[in-house]
Amino acid sequence: MAITDNILAYWKLDGNSNDSVASYNGTDTSITYSSGNGKIIQGAGFNGSTSKIELSTTAFGTVNTFSISMWINVTSPGTRQGVFCKTDGASTATTVFNIEVGNTANKITFSVSNGATANSVTSTASISSSTWTHVVCTCDGTDQKIYINGSLDSTTAYAGGAINNITKATTIGQFGSFGSLPYTGAIDEVGYWDRAINSTEVSQIYNSGTGIQYPFVDIITAQTGVFTLTGYSSTLTVGSTMTASTGSFLLTGNPTIFDIRGWINQSKNTSTWNNQSKHF
């Protein structure tokens, strides 16, 4: 199974909240996009009062098998804040799912409701302030899981039965349509799957802490031979990794290359690599 199988939406948050998979674009309120707010290229900054990104009321939380992946950089993780939620906050009957930070101080809490019962799992790991943390929450219809920085952190049983599929806005940065518990900090690279992604896929997205953007194809690997990227259409994004056991990589022409360390629209010619990894 490919990591992109059953991916419903992905928001890179590079200057806007447009969906890179389908058409589930967000509606922004008081969002600041910048490289300083981004893990990869750019991300969304939230002011802790009015900031939010509102998404579809019907597309998400329709089945009890789903996954949500994101990078968060929260200013005060000891304060309760909504991160990615579909709820109006009033009751279990009007909740679908919630991802919060600070419900238990410095922890991630992931709740899923079947309409009668909302089971929650809370991370064992603490979230550090003003530090990028990769969070993945999955539900496979049997268990709810939280992964922190590429590794399984905690698990609890799902309440059972169908998910509470009701029409509520899905919101990034607040506690759903209830409009409370606003988030302070940055969020980047948010993905939603209509299946529970597995531990291998979580590790791939975490990418040793570097992260990787949809469509998750930034790794180019050679055992032997030469790889050439030519012309202006060739692109390597932040998080790209080239690895060679033997052989070399050659970037010729004037490829468009984005690098977190600051070089754009330059040619790069590498020497032969032996068991080395180059990060662009």
TrEMBL record:
SMART domains: LamGL. Gene3D superfamilies: 2.60.120.200. Keywords: Disulfide bond, Signal. Residues 64-200 form the LamG-like jellyroll fold domain. The keyword Disulfide bond applies. It comes from the Bacteria. InterPro entries: ConA-like_dom_sf, LamG-like. Pfam families: Laminin_G_3. The keyword Secreted does not apply. This is LamG domain-containing protein. It comes from Candidatus Dojkabacteria bacterium.
